[in-house]
Amino acid sequence: MYTSLLDTVFSDSFLSPMRTVYVVSDIQLEEIKRKQRQDELDNLEASRKRLEQIYQSRIKIIDEREHEIQEELKSLTPTDKKANLPGEKA
Q1: I need a surface site. Which of 16, 32, 82, 90 has the fewest CB within 10 A?
Q2: H helices then E strands: how many in the chain?
Q3: Average pLDDT, whole number, for the chain?
Q4: Rounded to 5°, angle at Cα 40 from 39 and 46
C-alpha cells in the first residue's frame, strides 16, 4: 500500500503526543473531586474577601473626599447671601 511522506512523519511515535493514563479507584476519584471542589471554594472565599476589602477601601476614600468637599463648601458659602447678590437692594 502506498503511504505518503506526510503519513510517515505523523505516524512516527517520536512526533505523536504521549498520553499518560492514570488508573484510580472510585474512592480516590471521589477524594480528588472533593479536593478540587474544596480548592475552588477556598479560591472563591479568598476572592470575595479581597473584593470586600477593596470595596471598603474605596468607600473610605469616597467618604473622606465627600467630607473635604462639604468643608470647602461651608467655607465658600457667604454668611449674608443678600449682600453678595448683584442687583439686590439691601
Answers
A1: 90
A2: 3, 0
A3: 84
A4: 90
Give Cα separations from 8 to 5, 18, 19, 84 (angstroms). Answer: 5, 17, 20, 94
The cell for 85 is: 447678590
pLDDT at 1: 53
Record the pTM. Answer: 0.53
d(CA 35, CA 38): 5
Query: Is 84:78 a contact under the CB 8 Å cutoff?
Result: yes
Which among 12, 14, 32, 13 is positioned nearest to 22, based on CA atoms? 32
Binned at pLDDT 50, 70 and 90, residue 83 comes out as low
